[in-house]
């Protein structure tokens, strides 16, 4: 099967491995290099006491607890992509503002283990005080990074693991099934999260799911027409799907079309909303923020926002009647309009 799958977007956990908060810690030359690296991203040169620096261990080439691994060449790519990406703090559902910026990254080899270890700087503003303290104090010890890939490759059959039936973590003969992440497209952002949270509780609200959930969702989507009758009715997602099918009297063969239609309706509603927003609010309309706000909402909720804008739009440009009566030209002794009226009266 040569169906092109969407890029695989997911979150991957890492750890905060250290901090360099004491300007006197390293040799002077190291500090100069550090300052220069940070200042490549700042609009005015920052002083060393204006920011804190943390090192993170993002990902590595070993098989991890989710039975996934990165090949060395993809780690090199991630290493190049990470500088400039934002570091977020994530303990609320909506996400939040960036707290820091990844400003450099290096590959760290420890025998067979190769890891991507970027450094991030966080400004010592009043707003960031608690955030920095939480990292320094070891409360925020874990990281969660959003990636997108083209191909999670199955170690058993070499296919896209979303399309085969091998189960990561299970052994087939002598061979362990895991998947290799190939064709990295982007590093989206990094987050720091309280230790032990694994990010799963709130991360599922976002586009990038925690790795096991992302794989499960991707597989489910791919296998849906088969799995709906394949005994996975106990899974909550499958049950919700079956209920929706029942409520809307959908046969399994109609589900794909319904999903297409639903997504198309969403897309149109969002486009119309943004079009009206640009028209009504001009530069004050922050399209990026609105798109992000609308993304997790249901179509009904999107329509609620949309109708608020439609009302404003109608006030600004009152709707014209669709057709206006036009006087018909009279021709001959018996006018056309008179004949028309006669027809109507008949
Ligand atoms: Zn396979």
Key phrases:
10 helices; flat; 346 residues; two-stranded antiparallel sheet; alpha+beta; 2 domains; binds zinc ion
Write structural notes for this entry.
- With about 350 residues, the protein is α+β, with helices and mostly antiparallel strands.
- The protein folds into 2 domains: about 10-210, no CATH class; about 250-315, no CATH class.
- About 35% of the residues lie in helices and about 25% in strands.
- It has 10 helices and 12 strands.
- It has helices at about 30-40, 70-80, 130-135, 200-205, 210-225, 235-245, 250-280, 285-295, 300-315, 335-345, and strands at about 10-20, 50-55, 60, 70, 85-90, 100-110, 115-125, 140-155, 170, 175, 180-195, 210.
- The chain has a 7-stranded mixed beta barrel. A two-stranded antiparallel ribbon has the order 9-10.
- β6 and β7 (about 115-125) form a beta hairpin.
- The chain is flat and about 105 Å long.
- The model is unreliable at about 195-205 and about 225-235 (pLDDT under 50).
